[in-house]
Design goal:
The protein has 107 residues and is of the alpha+beta class. It is built from one helix and nine strands, in the order H-E-E-E-E-E-E-E-E-E. Strand 5 and strand 6 form a beta hairpin.
């Protein structure tokens, strides 16, 4: 393959890669500081991105200049709501799951 053919192939696949990445994004509002895995997440609106194959994924919480990545387990389930936090109380509020429309991300 010539360099031009390789470049054309790469450019042709960019929209597919961007579309695939866009499917693993959600937005969620956290109303108080919580702990997800080993990360402390301050109150605020977050963009959530996850990547990985199979049930093991890496979830990144992004808010402004802040980001934290934690491991999670993705379980296919249909939920009526777009995003719902599942937490447990104790001395620290733990984020145990994030229910999305087609998935549950378990921390």
């Amino acid at each position: 393959m010539t360099r031009i053919q390789v470049l054309a192939l790469l450019l042709a696949t960019l929209p597919l890669a961007a579309n695939a990445a866009a499917k693993n994004v959600a937005h969620v509002e956290i109303d108080k500081t919580v702990k997800a895995g080993t990360a402390d997440l301050p109150k605020g609106d977050y963009k959530i991105e996850w990547s990985g194959t199979g049930p093991s994924v890496q979830v990144t919480f992004i808010k402004g200049n802040f980001s934290a990545t934690v491991p999670a387990r993705a379980v296919e389930r249909h939920h009526e709501v777009e995003a719902k936090l599942v937490t447990t109380q104790g001395s620290t509020t733990l984020l145990t799951a994030l229910q999305l429309h087609k998935f549950t991300l378990q921390f």
